[in-house]
Amino acid sequence: MDKIRIVGGNRLEGVIPISGAKNAALPLIIASLLTDERLTLENMPRLRDVSLLTRILTNHGVDYSLNGKRPGEDHLAGQTIHLTAREIVDTRAPYELVSQMRASFWVIGPLLARCHEAKVSLPGGCAIGTRPVDLFISGLQALGAQIDIEAGYAVAKAPGGLVGARYVFPKVSVGATHTLMMAATLAKGETVLENAAREPEVVDLADCLIAMGANIEGAGTSTIRIEGVDRLHGATHRVVPDRIETGTYAMAVAMTGGDVTLTGTSPDLLSNALDVLAATGTTVEAGPDGIRIARGSQPLRPVDVVTEPFPGFPTDLQAQFMALMTRASGVSRITETIFENRFMHVAELSRLGARIAIDGRTAEVTGVDRLIGAPVMATDLRASVSLVIGGLAAEGETIVSRVYHLDRGFERLEEKLTRCGAIVERISGEGMR
Ligand code: EPZ
């Protein structure tokens, strides 16, 4: 298995291009199931999760092709993917596939909408929490689906097709909002989703569905109205920039000091997190070329954060911010409210010399003068990149193992950081023997 070796201490200087958002790319790929025409998605990040989901969809009958690098193209540019679900050949999603990629459970919405049936394995828990799917089930039932749980599968039927309804999410869920919005595009009549997720990725999916002929209003607010249509058609859509990748590199620069412009992204996608970063004393400037992040020799001020659904501070940046706060000049309190088990990075950051105490959902981080490199282990995607951020500021060598987590969601991380002066290299499994 590959590892990442980091020699800490270098400041980051230069430009980091931001890729398309993984968490928008995944529902967009799934939206291809809603039409028999071609869906073209531009600015697709080159990530393991994207290629895995695309391959999973071939099981349902989706054909796909990828445009590779073109002459003169910046090789960090995103790719274009064409997806066509001319005929759905299988409405089942087996456990072997769903357990590899939990977002593939979301196919239940488009399959029910287009084929009026689906049999999709329940995804089970994961490293960060139990992650139930009750809201998907109750929401689709509100749209008229009959759903039984049988031998680990959600067996769903809507013999006469889905019917629009009002559904109030008892809890904000990104995935359930994506799924119900996709399902409602082909339901009869109007659907009103209340207490819907407002994440930029929901807006991006809605924009794509609208380009495909859907009738959707209110995405980005907590009430989304969808008037069902008989069919959707092909479209071309550009994936929104990755706000979590943006925030991650912003925190890396704040951690090491330096001056970096993050291009191909927008501050509107993550205003709260940038406000928090500015409160640490880091310079955050939005300009025509992107977002400039800079920090000189001034100390990092401690800042308390509580993770919340958008537009609050994102859970997907909690681990990275905690890494940053390990070097603050004082005590910060970081409270995780979205997932019950998202502090797996604490023990690993402590191996670098961080002082962190957990009390229930809150981690109290006492800044230290120095971190010292050590071997650490990645446990999930965002936790693993927090270890990279720690390693960039630590003295000496940090080796992060289990980096397949990183490859799920960070496109060419080593290359992007190395271009800005960091010493980060991948050691292939072969090389470690
Ligand atoms: C999405 O997961 C993201 N994944 C996650 O990113 C992100 O952390 C999360 O949203 C929150 O922002 C993708 O977009 C692929 P939720 P999702 O449903 O949709 C509970 C990453 O690192 N819940 O908004 O699965 C759930 O357990 C990943 O890129 C129910 O109780 O998250 C959690 O506590 C990790 N019942 C809360 O809601 C349900 O039926 C929010 O989860 C559904 C969710």
Features:
globular; alpha/beta; 15 helices; UDP-n-acetylglucosamine1-carboxyvinyl-transferase, Chain; 2 domains; 31% helix; 433 residues; 4-stranded mixed sheet; binds ligand EPZ; single chain
The biggest beta sheet is recorded as: 4 strands, mixed
Question: Residue-averaged pLDDT, rounded?
Answer: 94
**Count of helical stretches:** 15
Which word captures the global form? Answer: globular
Strand percentage lies at 25-35%
- Please give the order of strands in the largest beta sheet: 22-23-1-24
Bound molecules: ligand EPZ
Give helix % range: 25-40%
In CATH, the topology of the largest domain is named: UDP-n-acetylglucosamine1-carboxyvinyl-transferase, Chain
Number of domains: 2
Low-pLDDT residue spans = none
Tell me the CATH architecture of the largest domain: Alpha-beta prism
Global Rg? 22 Å
Superfamily at the CATH H level of the largest domain?
Enolpyruvate transferase domain
Number of strands: 24
Through-space gap between termini: 10 Å
Structure in words:
The chain is α/β, with parallel strands linked by helices and about 425 residues long. It folds into two domains: about 5-20 and about 240-425, Enolpyruvate transferase domain (UDP-n-acetylglucosamine1-carboxyvinyl-transferase, Chain); about 20-235, UDP-n-acetylglucosamine1-carboxyvinyl-transferase, Chain, CATH 3.65.10. Helix content is about 30%, strand content about 25%. The chain has 15 helices and 24 strands. The strands form six sheets. A four-stranded mixed β-sheet has the order 22-23-1-24. Helix 12 (about 380-395) links the parallel strand 22 and strand 23. Helix 10 (about 320-325) runs parallel beside helix 12. It is globular. The N and C termini lie close together (about 10 Å). The model has no long low-confidence stretch (mean pLDDT about 95).
